[in-house]
TrEMBL record:
GO terms for molecular function: monocarboxylic acid transmembrane transporter activity. This is Monocarboxylate transporter 7-like isoform X1. The chain crosses the membrane at residues 21-43, 63-83, 90-109, 121-141, 148-169, 175-198, 397-418, 430-453, 518-541, 561-580. The keyword Cell division does not apply. Keywords: Membrane, Transmembrane, Transmembrane helix.
């Protein structure tokens, strides 16, 4: 490849400040989780009044809440794609407005199907925009304290359930479900205020020194082969011996810097960048990614502008919510800047029009390039997250099946525990606090699990399996317990605590589990596929397992079968993960026997 004199320039890299305004962002994210999960988990408080309004069986009413549960997960990959073109602040505000409009519209519907569409489908998409932003943004503000920051943010889920379940019950009792949804619309809109606090991070500009003219052969190191396919570089690399082969479409900022300068320690400087300096590495990136393609087929490649909104999600660790000390990439770096460069990728878009490099920095040209860049950036994220070929990995396939089963049975206690207790003779005013108890003990479970998991010797997979097993067993045993207020509150406490531990794993250690199985470079892909499967399970689980006037209710006259099935499914989701490490070892051994496979 030919490097021209003057190839030096600057790299714009976002580095986590690890403090300061980041703590404001964490508590804003905490509030968003209070509202979103609080409304989702307390939907059961609205069901009985909706049954009286629409004169439909509870099984159909359940679909409304299940759609809300499902689509706030299913829409996750699409929201992530949007985040790669728009910043956290804008996405959160837009999601808040969408949710507010959806809930206000739902308060005036006359048909159950209209309610499903407005409250479940549209409301779920709006909530997804709030939820994904609130869960991810702590990781962009924190490296050293990322696990703590993420843990504080997701604790809003349990607190929201504790507060909003009795509040919704009180509102429904006095004003009906329509007014209650109007109040929820106001709460959803208040997340826009929290979103305003999601201040975009400004990048650090790293100066790359100018190098002398030199001609370099496009030689590829033997331990890092590049395969050209449709203009995309596919590189075989691993984080350590445990990790899989990954396909990566762009070099990291660290690789670009080291190639251009020969240095190992980049030097930051105050932010100062021009339209021209953002394009100074175009020739190198073209040669680096596609050295054999004709010049007219190559696009202008621009580094990210000094704004987190340009390529917000072009980091391998964007979905990693655990302690970075578990990552070899983090422990091997001397500073946060070095780490950020090692996981930040500079994408190359291969379809830009010829001559983009030479276009002047006019407003029209800049707008057109930005729109094209945003579109391609979003599509890049979406196609990466929804690449289902990752399911060919046996270990990840098992983890995905476990995640699907977990969400299939998870929401049944939230939706039916109150009604089951009332059917057994408990006063409604006492029964509504059962869901609140789940929320409160869920928070304690998250905190304790987060503390335990801070020790590197703790196995994330074992911790996840144990907590999920106990949650499933408690649910199976509930129908066998003699009825008393104490027994039902005991179940709510134990289920909330164990599932809180699981969801602490689910929120922070889930990413650790995925990295152990697939490697950090495939975390984004794995996360997107997992969200889709779990979203589908959440959407169909409760109507399938909790049909009051349907098959189970007709056969037994009680909710017992629904709790049996929910508990069995939750337990099964844990059991299939017990041999996960053996499956991973077998998978790695099989790959070692095929060294030439890509």
């Amino acid at each position: 490849m030919h490097m021209k004199k003057g190839a030096g320039g600057s790299l714009a890299i976002v580095v986590a400040p690890d403090g300061g305004w980041g703590w404001v962002v964490v508590f804003a994210a905490f509030y968003c989780n209070v509202v979103v999960d609080g409304i989702i988990y307390s939907f059961s408080m609205l069901m009985s009044d909706m049954v009286n309004t629409f004169h439909e069986p509870e099984s159909k009413i359940t679909i409304v809440g299940s759609l809300l549960n499902g689509f706030y997960l299913i829409a996750g990959p699409f929201v992530s794609a949007l985040l790669n073109s728009v910043d956290f602040r804008s996405v959160t505000i837009i999601g808040s407005v969408i949710s507010c409009i959806a809930f206000v519209s739902a308060a005036y519907v006359e048909s159950l199907y209209q309610l499903m569409f407005c409250y479940g489908f549209i409301g779920g998409i709006g909530f997804s925009m709030i939820y994904v932003s609130a869960v991810l943004i702590p990781g962009f503000y924190f490296d050293k304290w990322r696990a703590l920051a993420t843990g504080i943010a997701v604790c809003g889920s349990g607190i929201g359930t504790f507060v909003l379940a009795p509040l919704n019950a009180l509102l429904v009792e006095n004003y009906g479900w329509r007014v209650t949804i109007m109040v929820q619309a106001g709460l959803a809109l208040s997340c826009a205020v929290a979103g305003i606090l999601f201040r975009p991070l400004k990048p650090t500009i790293v100066e790359v020194p100018t190098i002398n003219p030199v001609v370099m052969e496009p030689k590829i190191p033997e331990d890092e082969p590049l395969l050209m396919k449709n203009g995309t570089a596919e590189r075989k690399m691993s984080l350590d011996s445990k990790h899989n082969t990954a396909k990566i479409g762009a070099p990291t900022a660290e690789e670009i810097y080291n190639h251009l300068s020969g240095r190992q320690t980049p030097e930051p400087r105050p932010i100062s960048i021009s339209c021209h300096s953002l394009n100074t590495h175009n020739q190198y990136l073209k040669d680096r990614l596609s050295p054999d393609l004709p010049e007219k087929k190559l696009s202008a490649v621009s580094l990210r502008r000094p704004s987190v909104s340009a390529h917000l999600m072009d980091r391998d660790d964007r979905f990693f919510g655990g302690s970075l000390s578990r990552l070899p990439q983090y422990s091997s770096q001397v500073s946060s800047l070095n780490y950020a460069m090692s996981v930040t990728r500079i994408p190359a878009w291969n379809e830009a029009e010829e001559g983009d490099d030479e276009e002047p920095c006019s407003k029209n040209n800049s707008l057109r390039r930005n729109m094209k860049k945003y579109y391609k950036s979003a599509m890049h994220t979406l196609t990466t997250m929804l690449d289902f070929s990752i399911l060919s990995s046996p270990s990840f396939f098992v983890l995905t099946c476990s995640g699907f089963l977990t969400l299939l049975g998870f929401f049944v206690p939230f939706l039916y525990l109150t009604e089951k207790a009332i059917s057994m003779g408990m006063d409604r005013k006492l029964a509504v606090w059962l869901v609140s108890t789940i929320g409160l003990t869920n928070t304690f479970g998250r905190v304790i699990c987060g503390w335990i998991s801070s020790y590197e010797s703790v196995d994330a997979i074992v911790l996840n399996n144990v907590s999920l097993t106990f949650g499933g067993l408690y649910t199976v045993l509930l129908p066998f317990l003699p009825y008393s207020m104490v027994s039902y509150y005991l179940y709510a406490s134990l289920f909330g605590f164990s599932m809180g531990e699981h969801y602490a794993c689910f929120a922070s250690l889930r990413s650790t589990m995925i990295v152990e199985l697939t490697g950090l470079e495939l975390l984004t892909n794995a996360f997107g596929v997992l969200l889709m499967f779990q979203g589908v399970a959440a959407a169909v689980g409760s109507p399938l397992l909790g049909n009051q006037y349907g098959l189970f209710k007709d056969w037994t006259g009680t909710y017992d079968v629904s709790f049996y099935l929910s508990g069995i499914i939750l337990t099964a989701s844990a059991v299939i993960c017990y041999p996960l490490r053996k499956i991973k070892k077998w998978e790695d051994d099989r790959k070692l026997k095929q060294p030439d496979s890509v």
